[in-house]
Amino acid sequence: xxxxxxxxxxxxxxxxxxxxxxxxxxxxxxxxxxxxxxxxxxxxxxxxxxxxxxxxxxxxxxxxxxxxxxxxxxxxxxxxxxxxxxxxxxxxxxxxxxxxxxxxxxxxxxxxxxxxxxxxxxxxxxxxxxxxxxxxxxxxxxxx
Length: 144
Known about the structure:
The protein is built from no helices and ten strands. The chain is an all-beta fold. The protein has one domain (5-142). The strands form two sheets. The chain has a six-stranded mixed sheet, with no helix packed on it. Strands 2, 3, 4 and 5 form a four-stranded antiparallel sheet that branches. It is globular, with a radius of gyration of 16 Å.
């Protein structure tokens, strides 16, 4: 039996290097405003007329800003496990960029274990699997 091919659910939105997982964002070269997902046309900062961006790895850590339960199966293009299992969703404020990024919380950590302000870190996990593929997604994990 051959191993499953690992594929990101959203190509180019996250990466993993020797330091760990991180989201891939963009930074305006004129004013330094960060964007996720990446911005490529014009800076949305009203005080900036920049149109040049550089891809940047975003902070791997942040603080839990808010959270909720996903008690129903999200619509497409989300690929849910079959059968669907409810999960927690976290809104995390990134350390350096001070922007809020949503994402699922790692399996086994429900809303009862989450507290606003707690430190969180980004990890790569499995969104769904087929007999030949494993679809990957970024997830938030409480820092121990």
